[in-house]
Amino acid sequence: SPVATAPTAELLRRRGNAYAQLQSHYYAEPPQIERGWREFLIDTDGRPYLDMVNNVTLLGHGHPRVAAAAADQWLRLNTNSRFHYAAVTELSEALLEKVPESLNTVLLVNSGSEAVDLALRLAAAYTDSPHVMCVRESYHGWSLASDAVSLSTSDNPLAASTRPSWVHAVDAPNAYRGTHRGTDSGGRYAADAVARLGELAIEGIRIGTFIAEPRNGNAGGIGIPSEYLPTVYSAIRAAGGVCISDEVQVGYGRLGAHFWGFEEHGVVPDIITVAKAMGNGHPLGAVITRRDIAEALSEQGSFFSSAGGSTLSARIGSTVLRVLDEEGLQENAQQVGGVLTDGLRALAERHPMIGALHGKGLYQGVELVRDRETLEPASVETPLICDRMRELGVIVQPTGDRQNVLKVKPPMCFTVESARYFVRCLDEVLTHGW
Length: 434
Ligand code: PMP
Fold this sequence. Notes:
The protein is an alpha/beta fold. The chain folds into 2 domains: 8-59 and 328-432, Aspartate Aminotransferase, domain 1, CATH 3.90.1150; 64-326, Aspartate Aminotransferase, domain 2 (3-Layer(aba) Sandwich), CATH 3.40.640. The protein has helices spanning 8-18, 64-76, 86-96, 112-127, 144-148, 186-202, 228-238, 291-296, 311-326, 329-350, 381-391, 416-432, and strands at residues 33-37, 40-43, 48-51, 105-109, 132-135, 167-170, 209-212, 215-216, 222-223, 242-246, 271-274, 285-289, 354-360, 363-368, 394-395, 397-399, 405-408. A 7-stranded mixed beta sheet has the order 4-12-11-10-7-5-6, with helices on both faces. It has a 4-stranded mixed beta sheet with strand order 1-2-3-15. A hairpin with a 2-residue loop joins strand 1 (33-37) and strand 2. 4'-deoxy-4'-aminopyridoxal-5'-phosphate binds next to helix 4. Belongs to the class-III pyridoxal-phosphate-dependent aminotransferase family.
């Protein structure tokens, strides 16, 4: 068995020495997790935890069909996509079946950061402009370019002041606590973004790319008010630019009612970036775009990723999509997500600390405030609530620039019983303290 044998505390100390501290781990005293099954994680003492954070593990932990496909493919062949094998064609075709017809070509990579990086390169080549407009409080990746367009200060406290000159920020269209408020604020946010485009044009700057998530995932699944994306997309295109919908976090059926987040807005992006869920945890990402956009890069060099679209990754990707459909997990996200929303709404009526409920399906966010009038964020309390939830057997984490939103994005095999357990535990903590 590959399971580590050292005691948990000793392993943690050794991790501190051997693995960079740049990336912190969940909890000061984390349980040692060596197994997972469906929406549960199991520590080395055999204690199960409800996993509310693993949207990467779309189908659930330890899915036997993914494991069987991976084992079978490893024994047959794993090589790169310069070779001709069925898996790369099958996955690309399966992805194209999920998108609007205007998007007709796929490039396979290994992560969300790579997908965003490649998307930005394609867009810059196609529009012949390096300038990108992006949204505050967002996160798009860790690589040089994807980090440059990530403006979330929880991931990088210096994000607002250290962007390269080709990055142009606009406000996060947050209808709950942003510059403009209310469900009808989309038009006002869009007007601000369009005005910014005009100012930049006067300075001689033509935006080639607009990148945004169709819901702000990093901020807690916060919805983008209607009108915003259609208006901004039109303005960007009118000036010769293209629009990227970063679906890495909220796409792939998780919203229940829609497979992709952009469908909520009635827009069709020029480029989609997707990753995380695609491989159920195996590194896999994709850029889905138009052939003319992809071909623009060929004038500036070629694209090749040694492991992107490998036989193994592509086979896993096809298996994940098939299981997602066959197990009806998008429908499950809608149904169980509805139960979750109902339970959380009932809690919000009794607990004034719940300031807002964001998201839908199995991507939700519970925003905690000290005061419903001032919206003062419960930034100190939220991590403590997460610690107490862990004691009750639930793994949930704070997110957003104010670290006051409980991020709720469990594997999509999540059940009604698990939804009720989560709501019950949150009720217990908000009632009896943390
Ligand atoms: N885009 C979005 C919206 C993300 O949330 C993330 C990761 N959290 C990324 C891109 C980067 O993906 P990865 O971690 O796979 O590089």
